[in-house]
Design a protein that fits this description.
CATH architecture: 2-Layer Sandwich
Helix content: 40-55%
Number of strands: 4
CATH topology: 60s Ribosomal Protein L30, Chain: A
Strand order of the largest sheet: 1-4-2-3
Structural class: alpha+beta
Largest sheet: 4 strands, mixed
Strand content: 15-25%
Number of domains: 1
Shape: globular
Distance between the termini: 12 Å
CATH superfamily: Ribosomal protein L30/S12
Amino acid sequence: MKQGCSSLLGLMQRARQLITGEELVVKAIQSKKAHLVIIASDASENTMKKMTDKCSYYNIPYVVLEDRFVIGQAIGKAERVTVAILDKGFANKFNSLIE
């Protein structure tokens, strides 16, 4: 993951604009609060399918990044498999950094 992406994820975490954990992320997707979902590349097949299906159904963009350790480290927590970005501005900025 690029340095800018890690820093931005950390900033979003401090601003309380991230939700982590499969169940909470699914709820954020269903309530249309999530503007971008990040999925770890080493997520289980089941989790990957569940997240991509939910995102597709609710029309929420998603990206598959690094592994759970890199994502967790970026937000200052233990490893994380799924993360939802709640702020539209942050989501757009993050998208522009990873492209």
